[in-house]
Write a structure and sequence with these properties.
By secondary structure, the protein is α/β, with parallel strands linked by helices. The protein has 24 helices and 24 strands.
Length: about 725
């Protein structure tokens, strides 16, 4: 089962909570759920939505929507083009009147607009035949800290459940069975998981200056009593306070986005030189500069790799999903202490703010503070920057007797005293650059490979891995490499990719930053003879299954062929219906192929109409419809397209919403499709032209009208069921 639901509203109305409640219900029934908020940076109005993607087998992301719940006409129109072929719109009666022009099934409910969110929560429950108690539990949980709001919403929902759902909506999704399928999952967003994981790892200091999408880390860390939280005057103070806190013995962390991270450059440089550290969360958004601050991109890879002057050696980690957000932040805090260097935790807006269902049985990550000395030290024996075989020196905290040392931004000797000795400079530089030589082990891997024997590999970092993983599960001919450590790079991967023929980098940036990193680290000698392709996406939206379908379909085709295929799919997925008049705007097989012929002509591709005779009773139409009065023989229109000097059959009749009812055609841009019906006679090209260019309009015979109307109603019903 796969279901996508979009709640759309203008800024300031606050319907995010409705999406969270619905997501929590699905997660509580064990479903795989992603909740993806999308919003504009304005106080009122605009286009905003909360998308929910629900599956009983895997996580997925799609641009298509099965149910659209808009709370104003602007948002209804903005998202109507995302409706799946069988999708529908559910809105209150007032809005339904304003969007009647949208060509999609629409259902309206009558209620007090003031309580839109709770009434739509009720509609959701009724759509999927859920018990009232499940919904009441979520109201109790979400509004536990607001008793008045909780009680008011409870009262409204209980009142609504006493009402019957409108006839037009009843049973709409009856065939989509929603039931408890396993142990309840939790449902929260990425920043909350990061904060929870960090606290689990002993975090006791967090600093931040509000900057989307990292701002909520302040709130989430502040929820934990054992964490001191500071919001200073700017990001310079944020970074330096983290270093101060670490120096004082704390496990310290801060979070920001690109503009704030730029102000932390000097502090990061100092952290490397003085060997005082912390974890720096960089939550990237669409830039440069302020850019489009409430939308996602993953264009800060280069920035995270080289954040400062002086060529520092640090760690850059790239969590890929909710599990990583929780567990890798614990490793990040450990790494900072173990290797005595700053750790950059690179995430994107999507991971920061997306909600994810998860099992809360995460494996424990033991706390490791590295070479920390807490006992008294003999007088004059402590060399804070001692040169050791593993390049890691012992360290102390201020209250350790005789454990004091100098921490300076200057080059220094083993005791921290400023030094300009050339030999010491070489030794200290080598020390800093070899700290992470022992980072990777049997338990710490910098990457994950799915389908290691595949000849074609997607390469990703960040939350794009979730949709990529879903895709390769359905298409095992493709593999997937997920990079979790960008710096240092786990070079063990070289041994595992020798048989790969093509790498496809899914990049949420324009410049192919992940590809350049991969190419530089793995080495040209390993990659010689292999294809390295980049699929860049900078349209503010995350990767979806549709994007990866496109990659698969156009893998080896030229640009013209790609366009022809896209034209075919566009026309195919217009919902088919039998024409009941000579209106130019019908969706019959003849109308669809007239449109497709016009599109092909724009690319100077020759095509011609073909017509065949068939019998209606050869199609899987119910007997009660076939029993209606009609002529059993019908005419069917399709195209022949002239490709590579051969006429190829191309039939785009049955839309994707009729999966399982009729065979849905897939076209590769070069070969024949099958004909949508079983022909018993195919007319000559000359006869076809005569039929397609009649001298006068031909009205539908009255004896066929009721039959055709019944088929159209049946087709609509099948789309809703599927």
């Amino acid at each position: 089962m796969r279901l996508s639901l979009t709640i759309a509203w203008p800024a300031w109305l606050g319907f995010n909570s409705l999406g969270v409640m619905i997501g929590r219900v699905f997660a509580g029934l064990w479903y795989f759920v992603i909740g993806d908020p999308e919003y504009s940076s304005r106080i009122r109005g605009g286009v905003n939505c909360f998308r929910l993607f629900v599956s009983d087998t895997e996580y997925f992301l799609s641009r298509e929507c099965d149910i659209l719940m808009p709370f104003d006409s602007t948002n209804a129109k903005a998202f109507s083009d995302t409706l799946s072929p069988s999708g529908c719109i559910i809105a209150n009666a007032k809005i339904a009147e304003k969007i009647s022009a949208i060509s999609a099934p629409q259902y309206s409910i009558h209620h007090e607009e003031k309580f839109d969110n709770i009434y739509f929560f009720w509609v959701f429950g009724k759509l999927f035949l859920l018990e009232k108690e499940l919904l009441l539990e979520e109201i109790e949980t979400l509004f536990a800290h607001k008793p008045d709001v909780r009680d008011a919403n409870r009262s409204i929902l209980e009142k609504a459940y006493e009402e019957d759902i409108p006839e037009s909506i009843r049973g709409l999704f009856a065939k989509t069975r929603i039931m408890r399928v396993g142990k309840p999952k939790q449902f929260t967003y990425g920043n909350a998981l990061i904060a929870e994981g960090a606290v689990k790892a002993g975090l006791n200091y967090y600093a931040g200056y509000p900057m989307t999408p990292a701002s909520s880390l302040l709130v989430e860390c502040a929820k934990h009593p054992g964490v001191t939280v500071l919001q200073p005057e700017d990001e310079i103070a944020v970074a330096n306070s983290v270093l101060w806190a670490h120096f004082a013995g704390a496990r310290a962390m801060c979070g920001t986005s690109g503009g704030g991270f730029a102000l932390m450059s000097e502090a990061l440089s100092f952290a490397d030189q003085a060997e005082i550290w912390g974890v720096f969360i960089l939550s990237s958004r669409a830039g440069p500069s302020t850019g489009t601050p409430t939308f996602t991109e993953y264009a800060d890879i280069d920035f995270a790799l080289t954040p400062t002057f002086g060529g520092i050696r640090h760690i850059v980690m790239a969590p890929s999903d909710g599990h990583d957000a929780y567990t890798l932040i614990q490793h990040a805090l450990n790494h900072a202490d173990q290797f005595q260097i700053p750790v950059i935790f690179l995430i994107d807006k999507q991971l920061s703010e997306s909600y994810i269902s998860y099992d809360d049985d995460f494996p424990p990550v033991p706390i490791d503070r590295g070479k920390l000395i807490l006992d008294d030290i003999p007088e004059d024996s402590f060399a804070r920057y001692a040169l050791t075989s593993d390049s890691l020196s012992p360290r102390t905290v201020p209250w350790v007797k005789n454990g004091d040392f100098i921490a300076t931004s200057y080059e220094h000797d083993t005791y921290g005293a400023t030094s300009e000795d050339r030999a010491m400079k070489i030794r200290m530089t080598e020390k800093r650059f070899h700290k992470t030589d022992s980072l990777f082990s049997e338990s710490i891997h910098g990457y994950e490979i799915v389908h290691p024997r595949a000849k074609k590999m997607f390469v990703v970092a960040g939350m794009t891995s979730m949709v990529a993983r879903s895709f390769v599960q359905q298409h095992p001919e493709y593999g997937l490499i997920i990079i979790r450590y960008l710096k240092p790079f786990d070079l063990r991967i070289r041994e595992e990719i020798s048989e790969v023929e093509e790498f496809i980098f899914l990049e949420m940036n324009y410049s192919g930053q992940l590809k350049m990193l991969f190419q530089n680290e793995v080495g040209y000698e390993v990659l010689v003879g292999k294809k390295l392709n980049v699929y860049s996406k900078v349209d503010l939206l995350p990767f979806t299954l549709e994007n990866l379908d496109t990659v698969k379909e156009v893998d080896t085709r030229d640009e013209n062929t790609k366009l022809l295929i896209s034209y075919f799919k566009t026309v195919r997925d217009i919902p088919y219906e039998i024409s009941l008049s000579q209106s130019p705007e019908n969706h019959s097989c003849s109308w669809k192929h007239v449109l497709l012929k016009q599109l092909f002509s724009q690319r100077w591709v020759r095509s011609r109409f073909r017509v065949c005779r068939f019998y209606w009773n050869s199609l899987p139409i119910p007997e009660n419809i076939l029993s209606l009065s009609h002529e059993d023989e019908g005419l069917h229109v399709y195209l022949e397209v002239y490709i590579d000097r051969v006429w190829r059959t191309v039939d785009a009749t049955w839309d994707n919403g009729l999966q399982g009812v009729f065979p849905i055609q897939q076209w590769n841009g070069k070969e024949d499709t099958s004909i949508a019906v079983t022909p018993h006679a195919i007319l000559s090209p000359e006869e076809c032209e005569t039929i397609m260019n009649p001298e006068k309009d031909q009205e539908v015979e009255k004896k066929n009208l009721a039959f055709y109307e019944a088929i159209n109603r049946w087709l609509v019903a099948q789309r809703k069921i599927l």
